[in-house]
Amino acid sequence: MSQKYFFVCRNCGHRIESFDEWFRLGQKCPECGKNFIDTKYTTDLDKLKKLFQTKEDVKSLWHYFDFLPLNHKENIVSAGEGVPQIDRWQFLEEVASKEFNTKCKVYVMRHNTGNATRTFKDIAGTLAASVLKECGINEYAVASTGNTANAFSHYLAMAGISLYVFMPEDAVKENIASVSSYGQKAVICKGDYAFAKKIAGEFTAKNNILMTIGNTDPLRVEAKKTWVYEWLRQVGETPTVYFQALSGGTGPIAVEKAYDEIEPLGIVKQRPRYISVQPSLCDPMTQAWEKAKANNFPEGWQNDFPKIQNPKTKVQTLATGVPGTYPIIADITKNSNGEIISFDESRLVDIARLVTFKTGEKIGPASAVAMGGFFDALKKHLVKDGEIVMINMGEGVDRASFFLQEYVYNEDRVSSADEIKPFSRKELEFRLWRNILK
Length: 438
Ligand SMILES: Cc1ncc(COP(=O)(O)O)c(C=O)c1O
Ligand SMILES: [Zn+2]
What we know:
By secondary structure, the protein is α/β, with parallel strands linked by helices.
């Protein structure tokens, strides 16, 4: 069969022809046993360039069908995931200029405007469901702290595929409820996310059920790489610095993949610096990075990272305490002159309040981590004059009602009209900024 795509082992270069073969091989390279593979396409790259230049109304990542690892369009399982919305947020540019003397362009990419589960996991959901359908798979498993759980439940249900979702004990209740409402199986493991992954591994091995290989899974990476395509299509330029909340790091891996792919086109001069942001109560990659920097990146530094058991973070979507992908993220960060930083979780709500005050957008806790990281980076002068910033906000507040409840800061509880205190929005805004800028 003439191949539209194939895989190449990133470790030894061995070629694997298709997902069918990859799944048959147990998602491991038969030569070296590693599971990090690169997806290659046989379509002429000029076609990709044309896709960036289209004037059509683009409805989803399937606009890039020729550069996604699915053979037949009839297998597409799509559910209104839409394309990310990219806006310039003027108030961020103004504060960068006024408070930090840094003149930069700031784009914010959001994923909560589509009609599926409204996080940036939807695009991986649509690709995974479509590929699994094409391969005739009817049972699948995923370990997830929340948003992937939800997106995969939704899309695999649409494809009639039974999904086992392994979640840590303290997963957000809405996510657990949502998984099972689709008729998928929520397996709540009595421990942390690393423990859920362990149980998932054991269960799927015993029962011969296919399971995602995690952050390097081509089903996820190939979907998220389309963000870069959308930057080129929607705004016609790419950032010099990219902010994202960091859990396992599929995002940076996928963005790098897109640059590898478009490099031969010569349309992008520069890759971004990655500034990845971890929540302060689950920041093993930041700790590892800081240590490596302090020791001048000694031999083998990429393999030296802490394992945080039962992380206490309240941002469950970012609760990767044992970051198996650190060696990959470490290299991506270093090669880009980037940073891995932590954001103090006690300040997340202030960030979210300010964003909603200024834009009307209610952001979820993981998005607040990315946004908080941007403010901290300004303070540390990690963003320079003339830069183009892209902040990837992966979720709205939809499935984190606990977080929305914390937003409240302008209420009176009264038993008579006399008890109501007047207020001024100006004064509120002053207080919000003071909390952020202090
Ligand atoms: C909203 C949101 N932001 C960030 C992340 C982190 O993604 P990554 O896999 O790139 O670390 C996740 C999920 O893990 C998420 O749901
Ligand atoms: Zn190999």
